[in-house]
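Tutorial, part two.
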Amino acid sequence: MTPTPRHVPVAIVGGGQAGLSVSYHLTQAGIEHLVFEARTAAHTWATQRWDTFCLVTPNWQCDLPGHPYDGPDPDGFMRKEEIVAYLAAFAAKVNPPIREGVTVRRAEPLAAGGFSVRTSDGDYTADEIVVASGGYHTPIIPRMAERLPSSVMQIHSNQYRNPGQLPEGDVLVVGSGQSGAQIAEDLHLAGRRVHLAVGDAPRCARFYRGRDVVTWLADMGYYEMSVDDHPLRDGVRDNTNHYVTGRDGGRDIDLRRFATEGMRLYGVLDGFEDGCLRFRDNLRSSLDQADRTYNGINAAIDKHIASRGIEAPAQAHYAPVWEPEAPVTSLALAGSGIAAIVWCIGFRPDFSWLDASVFNGAGRPKHSRGVTVQPGLSFIGLPWLHTWGSGRFGAVGRDAEHIARVIQKRLGADRFALRFAV
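Running the prediction step on this input gives:
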């Protein structure tokens, strides 16, 4: 006889900071729920970050529900072990009804309303599902990787921990977003010879005119701008993050300066043919565009300072310290000295376990601040779900509060609050 599925009003899929934030607000509203986490709460910060990883936004922006940063360095940048401790303390405060080690294998709408939820630990039904598993699921490694010789070690950025795990020799880092630029720097500072295939990621200053750029942008209201008010609208969700670092108290990442110190820069890696790595002839334009963004952000800060009569030290705009010479579009792998490749070209979303007509052609959910057209289905923790901070510690709590209010209204949750009070 097939066991009757257990019913839970709200199923939260994912036990990271987003899922825990929703759990916090549902608990405040007295709404019964379960959090399903395939591994352990907030595990990715401990298991999928390199040893010297740190935040790129100041600690004061960490403001999870009921758990703002209260450490000794609000203008600093938490290191990996501090982030893990911060999240462990948050999980302890929330004390969520979490099922760790339980994978949601399939979820689909029921004809009578609500959802069927099949897990590795039995079947459930739910009135509401909140997908809090983020959007970074499947590491992207191009098909060309299959043709590379087995003598070259290949890992993805989520597997990189430190230079010592890689074999002796040169290292090719593919991609110059936040992970790629910071991993390239980590290797470079360790004395490794680095080859970096540069992408189209923009960059920004760490500090400008006496303050952290994030602090200036917060004062300018940038982090309160919703996706609906952004000039790019939904397109901003596809933007690559600016590269910068909070390492050693925070600094710019300047790929041109790395080049003067021996790092070899190339354009986008396009393929591998006849034993040669093939690169696009776009290194100069990529560096120039990154610098235009850098100086453009600083110019916006200048305008803000001038319009409000703020006293701030003058600072010149960035001028390039290195220019590429003749482009290198082909590099024989055998003679390059490259012993390892770190792929830093991102992730694909994988919501294949969820049967719902809410996804676009790229497999990303369509929603309005996380709420989809499928009754009872919401998402949280995605980049630019509502504002820039939606995928970060800064604003995910506000998104969680919004989702919880929508759920409370849909469930008529006064009945839950009454039952919990008895």
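Residues 181 and 243 are 7 Å apart (CA to CA). In part three we will examine how such features are distributed along the chain.
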